[in-house]
Amino acid sequence: MKSTDAKIPVAEKQPIELEKHGDIRTDNYFWMRLSDQQKLGEVKDAQTQKVINYLEQENTYYEEVTQYTKNFEEKLFEEMKGRIKEDDSSVPYKDNGYFYITSYQKGMQYPIYTRKKENLQAQEEVLFNVNEMAKGFDYFQLGGLNISPDNKLAVFATDTVSRRQYFLRIKNLETGEIYKDIIENTSGGSVWANDNKTIFYTKKDPVTLRSVKIFRHVLGTPTAEDVLVYHEKDETFGTYVTKSKSDKYIIIGSHSTVSTEAQFLDANNPTGNLQMLQPRQRDLEYSVSHFKDHFYLLTNKDNATNFKLMKTPVSATTKENWVDVIPHREDTLLEDFSIFKEYLVLEERANGLNKIRIKRWDNKEDYYLPFNEETYAVGVYNNPEFDTDIIRYRYNSFTTPSSIIDFNMADKSKEIKKEQEVLGGKFNKENYKSERVWATARDGKKVAISLVYHKNTALNKHTPLLQYAYGSYGYTISDGFSTTRLSLLDRGFVYAIAHIRGSEYLGRDWYEDGKMLHKKNTFNDFVDCSKYLIANNYTSDAHLYAMGGSAGGLLMGAIANMNAELYNGIIAAVPFVDVISTMIDDSIPLTTGEYDEWGNPNDKTYYEYIKSYSPYDQVEAKAYPNMLVTTGYHDSQVQYWEPAKWVAKLRELKTDTNLLMLRTNMEAGHGGASGRFDALKETAKDYTFFLALENKLD
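Given the sequence above, the corresponding structure tokens read:
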């Protein structure tokens, strides 16, 4: 990027000493932390104004530095927007006698939810036009749509701040009336009992945002009279409520990183007593579905590291009654399952690749759907109906746009219901190549890297390459298609996903070996993949870029401290970088539930280990790559002050003249902008950062 005369912000230093286990850390920027009341303007004081002033100075600096890229950024946005079919609609799915459709209109930011009774030729009924609902809001999220069993009412959830604290309301779909019932501070989800008047929902702790209580609400009664059904008092657990696909049971679950517990209730008797399925036990996880006289359980019982499927009679649910349906396999991770009247559908992962397995209950057939590409992403998709031979799944790859496919499990025929259209007239999948290579990490483990690039891109030390990863919570980044990514590939970039430890790409052990006291394997894997790509002439340190968000932003902070010399540019999006301070403070949202992911620093062993990699604590006086850091002022997952403090400390200590920019969305939270075009604009800004460093602002 070009040099600029823009004034670099300098944050005021207000040293505060933080002591733990006899160790004293000096934090010069602790003052940047505001309470929720301060952020929302309920408390107005000098500190709040000082924090806002600093964030706005950083935003001004970003705008000034990138001013010369604005025309290109706008061009890039229009290019990305031009590939999207603006007036688009989803494949209708059938549920309880209605076909449900989500559509977008040209020029509109938000979806419209509609339905048609019994057949697709019926008159369309508009349930929610989110474009109308979002008017007047900088941020708007509609979620938790839940139709009553008699199809007459809908519960819906709204968030206008982006802290994932949803208001629940109820709409009469026959009259259009929105009832006066308003339930505040919920997780957004809800469950109808079969009486069409009782709903169950989850309340959050207003400070920690932990999902903590399940309430029962009866239509027409004051929400103040809602009955507390369950209170999760263990601070390391959250709670939720769901309904079995059979509609027979309401299930209240509790979950931590390493343990789960479920209770169930007859959906026909919403005021009945909860029955315990299996009491919580450390290192025992299970999820529940119902079929006939049994509960089916995806579980790691009996040291089934990669999980297995078991069942137990509804009349005898504790673990001594569980029996295997699909046994544990060392080489196959069982990720999910779906129950149909005649079939059991399994979602598995072997050698990093998704598989869909179809098995008849009468055992007459048991087979896998065939997929031929070297790397791809596939998953079962929206199958609410129980008595059907059709399973719907979504398939895509780095080079193949997404398709929604209906597969007939009886006659093995398939119908492509919809293929993602890439507009603009320039896309041809034959113009792109994808491959999967394996890097050897420093401890000998093989780490997969999925790559995609234009067929005309020469691979050498001058080739720009963007390496992406996440690497936490067992979440696996899929090798899926992206229309926006084409803007990089068409300009000569290679795009790579490093399937590092901390994900479940190679099974549950791959995750276990990238968390707690093994967390540094995640960072080492990413760096070793970078070194592999350089050594094998895919790129060089002058043209290698890295990107990650949230826990992937922690990864970016770690690699910047470890091996800054390998990267020309890094984007850290909503990065979790002040790990030690956050994990010590149990008033910060989500902290206590994360102890089994990162470790509890109240234990000295974990404190010292976390501190040894925490990006904020490990910043030192040395050269860093060009860096763009992004955050949202209302972020509930990673508070804005973590990236803000990190940037301030980097500015204080770094010895180079490379770019360092902080961009704060003052209206959004963890997920960024809520409108589809606003989200595209943020992507265009990010890609412009990389392309400007490569002097590719054509």
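The mean pLDDT is 93. Try to locate this feature in the token string yourself.
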